[in-house]
Structures are given as C-alpha cells and as structure tokens.
Design brief:
Distance between the termini: 26 Å
CATH class of the largest domain: Alpha Beta
Number of helices: 12
Largest sheet: 8 strands, mixed
Radius of gyration: 21 Å
CATH topology of the largest domain: Rossmann fold
Helix content: 40-55%
Number of strands: 8
Order of helices and strands: HHHHHEHEHEHEHEHEHEEH
CATH superfamily of the largest domain: P-loop containing nucleotide triphosphate hydrolases
CATH architecture of the largest domain: 3-Layer(aba) Sandwich
Bound molecules: guanosine-5'-triphosphate, magnesium ion
C-alpha cells in the first residue's frame, strides 16, 4: 500500500467525521448558529480536542464576520487552509547542528522510542553520518538489547551501561565515547515514563543537564515520541514533556494503525512544536518526514488550497 493509502486507512474514523465537514461545505447552508455547532461537534469527534476546536471555530467566526461570508462552503474552504497553517511551524527539519549533534528521545512506555531510534539511525547512516546510539534506558536489560540490535542493523555504534545504572551516567559515558570516535550524531534512548511521574521527569531533566554541560548547550533535538493511536491523553503528554525537557519536535508513530487524526493538530497547536517525522510501521524504512500538506490530503477527501 502507498504511504498515503496507509495513512488514509489509519485515519478512517477521523475521515468519517471530517467527511461530515465536507458535506457541510457542499450543502452551502446559510451560516447560522447551528452550522457553527455542527462544525464544532464534527471537529470534536475527529479528536481536535476542546481547546483547539474552539480556537479554530472562533477564528473562522471572526473571518466570517469580517469578510461577510454567507454560506457554509466558505467556512469549509478556509478550514482546510487553517489546518495546514496550524501544522506548519518553523524548524520542522531535523536539526543536526553540533559535533556531535545530540538527539534526546523521550516519551511514555511503548510509544515507539526505540523503534524510532532504529529508523532514524538507518536514515542517518544512509546519509553517510557516523551515528552512535546510547542506551540510557537502564530500567530493563532487554531495552539495551533491543537498541543493540538496531545499532547492528543500521551500522551505528553503541554504548550501554549496567542494568540499573544511573541513566545520566550512561549519557555521560556515551558523550565521551562519541567524542573519542568522532560521531556526527548521538541518539539517546530513554526509558518510557508517565508524564505525571515527577521523579521520573526529574531524571530526564538531569540527563538533559548532563548533555548541556558536556556539549556546552542544549541538545540539537529533544524529540517526543507519541503513539498516534492515543486520544486526548497525547495532549497531556506533549504539554508535560515539553515543560520538563523543552521539546524541539514530535514524532508520531503507529500511523499505520487506527490513528486519531485531529489529535496531531491539537498537539502542534497546544505546545507549538513541529511534528518532524511520522512512523508507519515497524521496519527500518517506515519513517517519513512529516508534511502538513500530505497529512491534509490523507485526512480530507476534497481538500482545497
Ligand atoms: N505498527 C507500528 N508499530 C510500531 C511503530 N513504532 C513502534 N511500533 C511497535 O510498538 C512497540 C513498542 O515499540 P518500542 O520502540 O519498543 O517502544 P518504546 O517507546 O521504546 O517502549 P519502552 O522502551 O518500553 O518505553 C513495538 O512492538 C514496536 O514494534 C509504528 O510506527 N507502527
Ligand atoms: Mg524503548
């Protein structure tokens, strides 16, 4: 299946709700309070979330008044553009500045961090970069093993600590090794943690501080890996990880399953951090740079720009 086909299948439920928006446009109804309510309900059922839905709708209302719109098709045409605008943020490309460029990967349990690192390593190796993977997930022995396999497959070098070691000490060792071996990119894998567990979030902050001290600045990227099948909890994840670690980007995984389309828009809106990649499967090649335009083509049957 093509990637667009995969994404369309994955967004099935959101597409159904959004088909309602398109029907609303085609109906060319006179703009009444009921039309706005209908739009609001459709966006909520497509997982745009309360805050983002009301922001989108009130923005549309303002323009409708200014431009003296009379029918619902005008609302819907503008809505497509708004979604694209919401999703388009500066610095959407992977930042690889610094020698080495350090990428810190964070997220809750099972969101797809380690797999994403494997895919990223494969991609960067393909671009001729010297890549080092650092297993700062010392929580489970199996976690380091999993990363070691990805390192071997992709031709990246690999640093791990002892099981139960302080993750920050592994980060420190990893950065020393990266310097000695002149790595271009260091990718740090971390243990999954709930965004609400303060002590575990503190541990992440400590890893970040070690990186800052060792390279004399922030990591090039702090990427939150989010499971795309998660509903509104994804917004809380994005907010709390952002507060703790100053995210520079988001990777949304599992967009080959049943994903919640609108949540992506809500996340970008709430934390103002760009989505940099999407994951569409479990193999090394299933990572794609995120494109707002393609996302919208997958989400809407008849997007007009
Ligand atoms: N279908 C699908 N599965 C994925 C994708 N990314 C990761 N997975 C699967 O999700 C599961 C968890 O992936 P991991 O990479 O181990 O997740 P993690 O965030 O490192 O998990 P912890 O280290 O336990 O916190 C694995 O079975 C992966 O194969 C994806 O894009 N699509
Ligand atoms: Mg992992």
């Amino acid at each position: 299946m093509s990637w667009l086909g995969k994404l369309r299948a994955s967004f099935g439920m959101a597409r159904e709700a959004l088909a309602g928006v398109e029907a609303l446009g085609r109906a060319r109804k006179p703009i009444t309070p009921e039309v706005w309510e209908e739009l609001e309900e459709l966006l909520l059922s497509a997982d745009f979330g309360v805050a983002t839905t009301s922001k989108i709708v009130s923005g549309l209302k303002t323009v409708a008044k200014q431009e003296l719109w009379s029918t619902s098709d005008q609302i819907v045409a503008r809505f497509h553009k708004d979604v694209e605008r919401f999703l388009t943020l500066p610095n959407a490309e992977l930042d690889l500045s610094g020698k080495p460029a350090v990428l810190l990967i964070v997220g809750i349990n099972g969101s797809g961090k380690t797999t994403t690192i494997g895919k990223l390593a494969t991609r960067l190796r393909g671009q001729g970069k010297q890549v080092m993977l650092v297993a700062a997930d010392t929580f489970r022995a199996a976690a380091a093993e999993q990363l070691a396999i990805w390192a071997e497959r992709s031709g990246a070098s690999f640093v791990r600590g002892k099981e139960g070691a302080d993750p920050s000490s592994v980060v420190f060792d990893g950065l020393q090794a990266a310097r000695a071996r002149e790595a271009d990119v260091v990718i740090v894998d971390t243990a999954g943690r709930l965004q609400t567990k303060t002590n575990l979030m503190e541990e992440l902050k400590k890893m970040r501080r070690v990186i800052e001290r060792e390279i004399g600045g922030a990591p090039a990227e702090t990427l939150l890996v989010l499971d795309g099948t998660t509903g509104q909890n994804a917004i809380s994840q994005a907010k709390l990880f952002h507060e703790a670690t100053a995210l520079t980007g988001v990777v949304v995984t599992k967009l080959d399953s049943t994903a919640k389309g609108g949540v992506l828009v809500a996340i970008v809106d709430e934390v103002e951090v760009p989505i940099k990649f999407v994951g569409l499967g479990e193999t090394a090649d299933d990572l794609r740079p995120f494109s707002p335009r393609e996302f919208i083509e997958a989400l809407f049957e008849e997007a007009t720009f």
